[in-house]
Amino acid sequence: MKTYKPHIARNPFMRTKARMITKQEVDNAVLKRAKTHKQIIHGSYALKQQIGEYARDPHDIDVLTKNPRHHMDKMEDDLDALAGYDAYYEQVLPIIGTEGEYVYKVIKRVFGPDIDIVDYFKPKKGVKTRKIKGIKYEDWRYAKKILIDIVNNPELAHRHQKAYEDLRRIEAYERSLKKWVNMYQ
Q1: Do the domain assignments include residue 155?
Q2: Domain-embedded: residue 8
Q3: How high does pLDDT run on average in the chain?
Q4: Domain that holds residue 130
Q5: Is residue 10 part of a domain?
Q6: Which residue, among 134, 143, 153, has the nearest Cα to 173 in the 3D structure?
Q7: d(CA 71, CA 75)
Q8: What is the DSSP string of 85-140?
Q9: pTM of the full predicted structure?
Q10: Which phi and psi (to 5°) does residue 104 adopt?
Q11: In the structure, what pLDDT confidence band is assigned to residue 32 with cuts at 50, 70 and 90?
């Protein structure tokens, strides 16, 4: 005769510190997947990797991939396995200002407003990239061109403040590069 252990539901909020995952571990999981599947990191995370202290701190990682829904599903499964419980969920939203384009999000469940972890997009043609440690990042010069287009587009008024801030930071980086080059000539 088999004996069954009673099912004891685990409380995910009373885990040991050894099972807690940090933002760095989550970012490493996303970057590892981007590297193995030849995806392109863009947005504030790509700027942070290239222009360093001049870029603003990224809140999430934006990824360009040919099959965003598939990678969203797999990333959500990977992060749930890393956490040890169902800590993440998926969300598909239309992109404001475009027709027929969607953003595929992986979001962490928390008390209060949930935390956006990864956004997957389909890439547009002609994205300029730069490889750093085997991971493709959107080039900061190309990002500057895109940000100027956002600022000049009145339909994307909801993104103007963030775009202005990023442009100001990129221009400060360019000024520092010019000083650095002039110092050694």
Answers
A1: no
A2: no
A3: 85
A4: 17-138
A5: no
A6: 143
A7: 6
A8: S--EEEEEEEPTTSSS-EEEEEEE--SSSPEEEEEEEPPPTT--EEEETTEEEE-H
A9: 0.81
A10: -110, 115
A11: very high
| CATH number for the domain that contains residue 96 | 3.30.460.60
User: Is 37 within 8 Å of 65 (Cβ atoms)?
Assistant: yes
Pairing of strands 129-132, 102-108: unpaired
Using alpha carbons, select from 37, 43, 27 the residue that is nearest to residue 65.
37
Give per-residue pLDDT as tens, 49-90.
999 888 888 889 999 999 999 999 999 999 988 888 888 999
Q: Helices 44-51 and 140-152 meet at what angle, rounded to 10?
A: 140
- Strand 61-64 relative to strand 135-138: parallel, antiparallel, unpaired? unpaired
Token reading at 86: 């169902």
Distance between CA 152 and CA 160 in Å, rounded?
9
Cα gap 107→97, rounded to integer Å: 22
120 domain-assigned: yes
Number of domains in the chain: 1
Instruction: For 30, list phi and psi in degrees, rounded to 5.
Output: -65, -45
CB count within 10 Å of CB 21 equals 15
80 three-state secondary structure:
helix
Write out pLDDT tens, residues 115-163: 899 999 998 888 999 999 999 999 999 999 999 999 998 888 888 899 9
